[in-house]
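Thread: Modeling a multi-component assembly for a lab meeting

Hi all, long-time lurker, first post. My supervisor asked me to bring a structural picture of a complex we are working on to next week's group meeting, and I have zero experience with this. I have the sequence lines for every component (925 residues in total). Could someone generate the structure of the whole assembly? Inputs are pasted exactly as I received them:
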Amino acid sequence: MRLLGAKRLRAAGLLAALLLVAAACGDGDTAGEEETPDAAATGDAGTEPDDATETGDATETGDATETGAEPAGDGATMVFGTSADPVVLDGALVSDGESLRAIDQIFEGLVTLELGGTEVAPGLAESWEPNDDGTVWAFQLRDGVTFHDGEVFNAEAVCANFDRWYNFPEAFQTADATYYWQTVFGGFAGGETESLFASCEATEDLVATITLTKPSASFIPSLALTNFTFASPAALEEFGADEGEIGEDGLFRATGTYGTEHPTGTGPFRFVEWTRGQQLVMERNPDYWGEFPGNIQNLIFRPIADGPARLQALQTGEIQGYDLVAPEDFETIESTEGLQLLSRPAFNVGYIGFNQAIPPLEDIEVRRAIAHAINRQEIVDAFYVGQGEVATQFMPPALFGYAEDVTTYDYNPEMSQQILTDAGYELPVEIQFAFPTDVSRPYMPDPQANYEAMVADLEEAGFAVQQDSAPWSPDYLGNVDTGQYAMYLLGWTGDFGDPDNFIGTFFQSPQPAWGFDNPEIVSILDEAEAETDEDARVALYEEANRMLMDFLPGLPYVHTEPALAFTSNVEGYQPSPVSLEPFSIVTVNE
Amino acid sequence: MLRYVALRLLYMVPVLLVLSFVLFAFLRALPGGPAIALLGERATERDLEVLEQRFGLDRPVHEQYFGYMRNLARGDLGVSIRTRRPVREELLDRFPATVELSIGAILVAVLVGVPLGFAAAKRYQGAIDQSSLVASLIGISFPVFFLALLLKYVFAVRLGWLPTIGRIDVRMLTAEHPTGFYLLDGIVTRDWDAFVSAAKHLVLPAIALGTIPLAIITRITRGATLDVVSEDYVRTARAKGLVSSVVNRRHILRNAMLPVVTIVGLQVGLLLTGAILTETVFSWPGMGSWILEAIRFRDYAVLQGGILFFVLVVVLVNLLVDISYAFLNPRIRYR
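Re: Modeling a multi-component assembly
Sure thing. I ran the full set together rather than chain by chain. Output:
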């Protein structure tokens, strides 16, 4: 006993000494540890995938215990760190990024987007042709494509999928499952909400004809969404994709195994195995119809919820890449040999929302005064580590319909005060303003920092700010959506390359968060959505942007480029503004 | 003895009932709800209404509660709002990982803490005693997540000895896992590579999670040993010529162990809470990270099922501790 005790003691002593040494030299080479953000200090470090503490500098990845990058078969293995498990591997039933990322590797749609861009490109359809009024679309399908289960991909398969989506049981007709169908196509068969989709017909073996109830210009770009990718109808049937029962609690209990064990698409990778909480394994599809320039044989997605843990796993080589790098880690990654940082083109907007139902925000003069009060350039310079640019409107410059000549509001606190006094206000003007805690978004890595700078600007410009905050999800978002806040920090990341996905989403119907009903704005957005002539459509969206920035429903202040990190032996990864990023073009070098 | 155990088990019923109701009401009193947590920025008022209705959240709380309890009585813990899978299935997936981690942590705490505390008491106010005091203070006051980051930084990033995430090397996950306890699986299937990989993955999380119990157990062992050392029977044992190791083992340690066992039992509850942070930082796929994620998504079914299950485990472990007293101390008899 004593001998054992002594040994243990020595081990414990050694450990304690090591810890003290590590802690003592911490400030020398781990500059970040003293600046651990509040989120981490409260013990919530792990909850939000995006938030992160700086974990100090890195070492070479060569001495890792577990590389994961060893070749299996004749290709490489790539382990990618994700922020969470997918919900289910059925594109029609998800809206979260991690599900979509995996589904993108296994499934394909009629159209896709240019690598790294938002231009529509042929996918499983080689070409498509509308009728004169833009309501009937004929898709010429690619020949010789098979699903992973060997079934042939043809027009019948396309229509089987469309029919499945359109006829979803009521249990799936909620926004958490079929958000994108509802956004793009509206309602379901027999539902109260009108649907854009009317029918799909296999007019020839390789020609699928889709009829819409009205012309829609965003129809084609939206087909690039991962949600509208095609599953093998035989597999859907065999593994009971839509089967289940409603329990006594009213919740749907899926009984099929399609989305968890047998997702079957046409994509460059096919599903192998999914151990929840641990890994999702895919392998190269040997019968892939298209090009497969990369060398990845085994693709593994590993969920790591904690931001700092993802960075450390990259440093040890346990993973070869991860998404949503925290801005404070940029420098660490860039300065570490063996690691690389890639940035994704800006496709988001951060804004201050104004709720016009809460005085005095119904007054355009007050909104103008706020716009002149905020020093947006300084905020972007200070808190976005070179990854941001000042926004002049509610959508990113990369998107068509972006107007160069919108009204801009330069930083000028004296002018703000002038506007307020001219409008008859007595300074300071009281205003409520809220920010979210426990969150980091691509467009808002550190909400509190933005907020504090904005509050200081507002107070300098003659406002007295009533400060408010709440945890992001669900408290804060709930308060915003129900119109509880007068001014609030929020933003948006686009899903597909169409202005409808930005300003259409925000303003096409009145919402409590904005607290106004402006028929002119609604009607121009309606008109733009339906316009099938491209030039006319661009002009309409440009006009809408000009109208919006005169009406000033909120103040857009930033577009950012989110970043991904990889080990340097990873080549060819192509970041896309809408995160449509195939691993089939990636090479992992030995 | 049997009667005592039966009574204790019976007492659990009202405890769990009251707790389940408090938990149920408390969760629903939290601001926001699962609908908005799921939809995030994309939520619209109408979507929220539809979802709340679908989740049955528009019904009165007591109605929801009785519906839940009826399902529970049938062994149905409901369906996760986020993953849409049965909670029971998820719980069974997650539970072995947490048990394995907790046992690892307890082992670290007991195997290091008891000898350390004993040694400290035997050399009262000596160097070991003083340094054990300092070490346990550090152990108690060190935030788990920070300790975890530090351990990973030193032993994984710097030295490259140990992995930082998960329970086993990704390539070995496809190995057979008949029990779900990966160390045990390695032994059962004689897959020694898998065993070694699982053991390596366990080291850092177990140390991180075991630190606080380790510190406490060291202090308790020391105190209890000090009490016992000055007892008459110890003096008598020495006087009648017993060798020191026998006195230590048979008379001092055995008697000093009583409070330590109690503490170990109490630590189980703390371990499960500690597991929430530790598991998240180490991407350990156990119940802790599961519950934390459920809080973020206001996944009521998971939270209710998971927390009730935690409580059940803690209560049962405490019962086991009480029973074990009888073996350690023949003077204690339960009726």
